[in-house]
Design brief:
The structure holds 2 protein chains of 2 kinds. By secondary structure, chain A is mostly beta strands. Chain A is built from no helices and 11 strands. In chain A, the strands form 2 sheets. In chain A, strands 2, 4, 5, 9, 10 and 11 form a 6-stranded mixed sheet that branches. Chain A has a 5-stranded antiparallel sheet with strand order 1-3-8-7-6, with no helix packed on it. Chain B has no helices and 11 strands. Chain B starts with a strand and ends with a strand. In chain B, a hairpin with a 5-residue loop joins strand 7 and strand 8. In chain B, strands 2, 4, 5, 6, 9, 10 and 11 form a 7-stranded mixed sheet that branches. Chain B has one domain (about 5-85): Sandwich (Immunoglobulin-like). The chains are: A mainly beta, B mainly beta. Chains A and B meet through strand 4, strand 5, strand 9 and strand 10 of A and strand 4, strand 5 and strand 10 of B.
């Protein structure tokens, strides 16, 4: 039931782009994305509620393909502050519980 | 706005003991969810409270129980502690379901 994220880890230089994928075996109602820095609480990035929906702010955006039960997080022109572990959280129809994925560790170097 | 606050921040307990963790949700939020996060892992859903009732539950034994008070604050109780219960316990609040959840800084529980 836990969504699977790929890749498990990403290493970038400042200014480079990255894509993080989240895949579920269940039909999804929504996908949430969070970033967690070491020793800190997860911080909300965005939520996607509709099939095919795309959202974004600043240089971080995401898409949600409801038919494939997949979501992707796009980070463009990465900054040092983007470093951390990214988690997707998924909600299936009929439940309100958020199940977090396996996580993707992102490191951005100067 | 103080956001989500959890107490205590750190706790050390002995196997077999019982522990109570506390969470105050963000102002205006009525739903509280609890998560257990082991080192290097993603948060694992324990349960969710809404209107003082447990609405959803994850795959955790009955040793894990909770409560929500009329002011929406919540407690997580764990009985008969095991070494494997050592983890960061996170509380998240939201306004209903399917909305953004705000996390507290967590309680680091160590069972020795």
């Amino acid at each position: 039931q836990q969504p699977v994220q790929s890749p498990q880890a990403v290493i970038l230089r400042e200014g480079e782009d990255a894509v993080i994928n989240c895949s579920s075996s269940k039909a999804l109602y929504s996908v949430h994305w969070y970033r967690q820095k070491h020793g800190e609480a997860p911080v909300f990035l965005m939520i996607l509620l509709k099939g095919g929906e795309q959202k974004g702010h600043d240089k971080i955006s995401a898409s949600f393909n409801e038919k494939k039960q997949q979501s992707s997080l796009y980070l463009t022109a990465s900054q040092l502050s983007y470093s951390g572990t990214y988690f997707c959280g998924t909600e299936t129809f009929g439940t309100d519980k958020l199940i977090f994925g396996t996580g993707t560790r992102l490191q951005v170097f100067p | 706005d103080a956001g989500v606050t959890q107490s205590p921040t750190h706790l050390i307990k002995t196997r077999g003991q019982q522990v109570t963790l506390r969470c105050s949700p963000k102002s205006g939020h009525d739903t509280v969810s609890w998560y257990q996060q082991a080192l290097g892992q993603g948060p694992q859903f324990i349960f969710q409270y809404y209107e003082e009732e447990e609405r959803q539950r994850g795959n955790f034994p009955d040793r894990f129980s909770g409560h929500q008070f009329p002011n929406y604050s919540s407690e997580l109780n764990v009985n008969a502690l095991l070494l494997g219960d050592s983890a960061l316990y996170l509380c998240a609040s939201s306004l209903g379901g399917n909305t953004e959840a705000f996390f507290g800084q967590g309680t680091r529980l160590t069972v020795v």
